[in-house]
Design the sequence.
């Protein structure tokens, strides 16, 4: 099946530093990737939609200058948390959309394992 | 390897009951989640089970058996709006989420 990986799995950093999280679709091409944030036992909150070769679309309330997204290829999207603060500590999850071919294609999202960010 | 299995698609009738099963094999276990995802929307948290047994929340219930590596989501009094994909995810010993591929539930009148 389609596999999505994230790196790193977990990261601890000092307040004020920047952290980059990678999301890769390992065996398929994804024109669209999504970045989510999850707090314990809560729904995934969509942060942004990343389309290959174009600027990401951010959800209301998400600071685009703080959460930089780059989707440089059909298999890689990166999320950089700039000048991280303790309130940015969270579980970040990406997903990649697989578009099957044809007019009746199935739009399926495959989720990554998540990256746990702790900002001290 | 780590693996989560759930049916690809299920069909049920409005007003009926449906049970969506999820079996898992993971390195360690730190809880099992069920999410509902409507097309084009973010997944919505439904339940979290870490101990064996049944957790009931309104029309939705979730069951876990850790010894069997098995969970199910039970939906009662089905409504048309319950048509969605239902995702099973297990948090492993490294607190990483292992996702099932999702079960597409189709509700017919």
Sequence:
């Amino acid at each position: 099946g389609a596999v999505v990986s994230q790196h790193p799995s977990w990261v601890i950093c000092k307040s004020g530093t920047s952290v980059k999280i990678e999301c890769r679709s390992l065996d398929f091409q994804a024109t669209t990737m999504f970045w989510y944030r999850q707090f314990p036992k809560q729904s995934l909150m969509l942060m942004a939609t990343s389309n290959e070769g174009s600027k990401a679309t951010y959800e209301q309330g998400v600071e685009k200058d703080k959460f930089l997204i780059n989707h440089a290829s059909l298999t890689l999207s990166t999320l950089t948390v700039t000048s991280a603060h303790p309130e940015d500590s969270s579980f970040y999850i990406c997903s990649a959309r697989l578009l099957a071919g044809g007019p009746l294609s199935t739009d399926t999202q495959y989720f990554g394992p998540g990256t746990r960010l702790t900002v001290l | 390897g780590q693996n989560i299995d759930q049916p690809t698609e299920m069909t049920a009738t409005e007003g009926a009951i449906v049970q969506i099963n999820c079996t898992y094999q993971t390195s360690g276990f730190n809880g099992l989640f069920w999410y509902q995802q409507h097309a084009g929307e973010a997944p919505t948290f439904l339940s979290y089970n870490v101990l064996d047994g049944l957790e009931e929340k309104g029309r939705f219930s979730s069951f876990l058996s850790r010894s069997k590596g098995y969970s199910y989501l039970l939906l009662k009094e089905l409504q048309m709006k319950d048509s969605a994909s239902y995702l099973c995810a297990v948090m492993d010993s490294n607190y990483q989420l292992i996702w099932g591929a999702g079960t597409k539930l189709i509700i017919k009148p």
Q: What stands out?
A: Residues 35 and 45 of chain B are 5 Å apart (CA to CA). The first strand of chain B starts at residue 3 and ends at 5. The radius of gyration of chain B is 13 Å.
